[in-house]
Amino acid sequence: MNKVNTIIVSLFLLSLCVTTTWAQDAGDYPDMSGKTILITGSTDGLGREVATRLGRLGAHMLIHGRNAQRGAEVVAEIKNNGGNAEFYQADFGSLDNVRKMAEAINRDHQRLDVLVNNAGLGAGFAGGERRESEDGYEMLFQVNYLAHYLLTELLLPTLKDRAPSRIINITSRSQMALNFDDLNQDNEHSGRSAYRLSKIAQVMHTFYYAELLEGTGVTFNTLHPASRMGTTMVLQTPGPVRSAVDEGANVVMYVATSPDLQGRSGIYFEQYDEGRAHDQTYDEAARERLDKMTREILGLPGRENQ
Ligand SMILES: NC(=O)c1ccc[n+]([C@@H]2O[C@H](COP(=O)([O-])OP(=O)(O)OC[C@H]3O[C@@H](n4cnc5c(N)ncnc54)[C@H](OP(=O)(O)O)[C@@H]3O)[C@@H](O)[C@H]2O)c1
């Protein structure tokens, strides 16, 4: 083959590759009209991208974040595209804020079809220094994990009422084993470990709850969207950007909307594939222990009292 032919064949193969990727990514997402969807942390990054896409598909979007100005911008963007959205402001560094937000959502909405627990702080938060929440817990553990556990618990009746419904925890493949004697990281802390601990806790939350929710029509899955997308939290840490936000958003769209996943629960996705999470997440005693300690921290009734 001469040089020109080689170039033509290469370009053809490249175009096939691009078309295939596009077909998978763009997908034939279902019409989401009539569905109500809450995405925590949808004022920025991944959450914002997914919220605007779901708004375009007709879902009534509940936007959440700390910053009212950014919240109003996302709501306006969705409305300008013909969709419907409203903003709920809550700082997850305050459990009281989480309770008030759940109360407001339960009051304002009779249905919730999809809950995406996405809000988060990254390893670079406060330059990696240990900070505590208003409630006295390590900040990443609270914002990324505890706050979402509480929110999920408080919204569960609404999710169950209108089942089939979906809960999705946005985790990361970056996970490390919890030390139950130092869950609050009083003795050992780094920004990186705080992030990884909060992310394994989210996976354990998912696996534990998926079993409890069997037969209710509520599915609970967790996913790693993509590695090092160029978002605010990633830009706070050294190292290159490796993925586009679009790439992670495609994965969230798939898990949130795909009819193929109807009724499928307790899955850890690494992008589109079922993955293997950290070994500790498969230890049933560890999951149970985390659940028990979490409920005590949050002042929720123990399982034996339910
Ligand atoms: N980026 C990646 O490469 C990557 C990889 C794996 C997993 N993830 C996960 O993807 C999710 C989204 O991350 P991202 O990269 O899109 O981050 P991001 O751009 O930094 O956005 C974080 C979102 O969380 C909200 N948030 C932060 N702290 C909060 C608090 N105390 N209370 C309430 N909301 C708070 C932010 O709201 P404000 O507007 O109020 O700041 C913002 O909407 C996270 O769970 C992250 O762990 C990301």
What is the structure about, briefly put?
The protein is of the alpha/beta class and 306 residues long.
Task: Describe the 3D structure.
The chain has 306 residues and is an alpha/beta fold. The protein has a single domain, classed as 3-Layer(aba) Sandwich (Rossmann fold). The protein is built from nine helices and eight strands. α2 packs across α8. The longest helix has 24 residues. The chain is globular and about 50 Å long. About 7% of the residues have low confidence.
Topology:
Blueprint: H1 3-26, E1 36-39, H2 45-56, E2 60-65, H3 68-80, E3 84-89, H4 95-108, E4 114-117, H5 139-161, E5 165-170, H6 191-212, E6 218-224, H7 232-235, H8 245-257, E7 268-270, E8 273-274, H9 284-298
The chain binds NADP nicotinamide-adenine-dinucleotide phosphate (NAP).
Q: Tell me the number of helical segments per DSSP (H or I, 4 or more residues long).
A: 9
Number of domains: 1
Main sheet strand line-up = 3-2-1-4-5-6-7-8
The geometry reads as globular
Which structural traits does this protein have?
globular, single chain, Rossmann fold, 306 residues, 8-stranded mixed beta sheet, binds NADP nicotinamide-adenine-dinucleotide phosphate
